[in-house]
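User: I'm writing a tutorial on reading structure tokens. Could you give me a worked example: one chain, its sequence, then its tokens, then a sentence or two explaining what the tokens reveal?
Assistant: Sure. Here is the example chain.
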Amino acid sequence: MSSCAHGSVQVVAVDAEKMNALMINYTEHVRQLMSDIVLRVPRLSFLDMNRLLVFARSGRAERDGPYATCHCVCLPPSDPGYYFWRDQTTGALTRRSEWFVTKSPIVRVGAAQIDYMISFTLPRFCDQRRVSARKRARYLGHPEWMAKLDTIIHELYHIDPHQPGIRRIERADGTPSTKCHSPAFFQDVVEMVTQYLTSSPDPEILEFLRYDFAGLTARYGGVVATTFRAASYPRRYIEVLSPQPAAPIHDCPVEALELPRMTTTFTENDLVTRRFWADTGRSLVRKGKVRAA
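And here are its predicted structure tokens:
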């Protein structure tokens, strides 16, 4: 640290690396908690934490939106398909797009191939000011930070143990449902939260959940997290088939697909440490080493 005087005002230059080291890295704390949950909750023991990436996205607490999201990046390419348009009066096919498939991006951190990512919206996740009545009822009489633990286990539980993708929900008759949640899903999460807490985890692993965003900032001087360097993050994308199928199914005009330029391969070089504020995020420094989870 160095200083110089300008009149009666002293300007202090503080080593940015030292300041960054004092701030809490939220995604690292979530990763540590997830690793402990997987060890203590048998229903989640199938998870390979080396193939799971935790990252953060910006989201204000006073606005609507998810607290966290589970992203699957290991689905195989889709079957070929195309878009088409019909005449509203006759129903005849008037035009169609080129054939295409949708693909998952490749995400690697070091030697680890990433299959799933879980993103946390900061500062919204830390504050959770709009906890649903259902969640409040599930943890009636418990401290408010239990809602955050519920969310973390909820997102882990979305990962399907049997096949690539998000866990499928079944109706009462055993047929697949289009919904992402069911009453049984929510109850399973509550049971896993209880199971984890009764396994006597180290209180220090849970300590960060006790604070809202303002409390974390006051305690640690700031909140940083792993996030993607670009504004976007890995997600499914469309790729036009080349060559196109030779035999046309319909005799109608074919329009070329105008697709946005997408990054299809990501590595640790696409990850940065970002400081998050109450209303926005600011890049600090590229991370030298990033763990998968």
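What the tokens reveal: Confidence is low (pLDDT under 50) at residues 1-14. Residues 15-75+105-235+264-286 form one domain.
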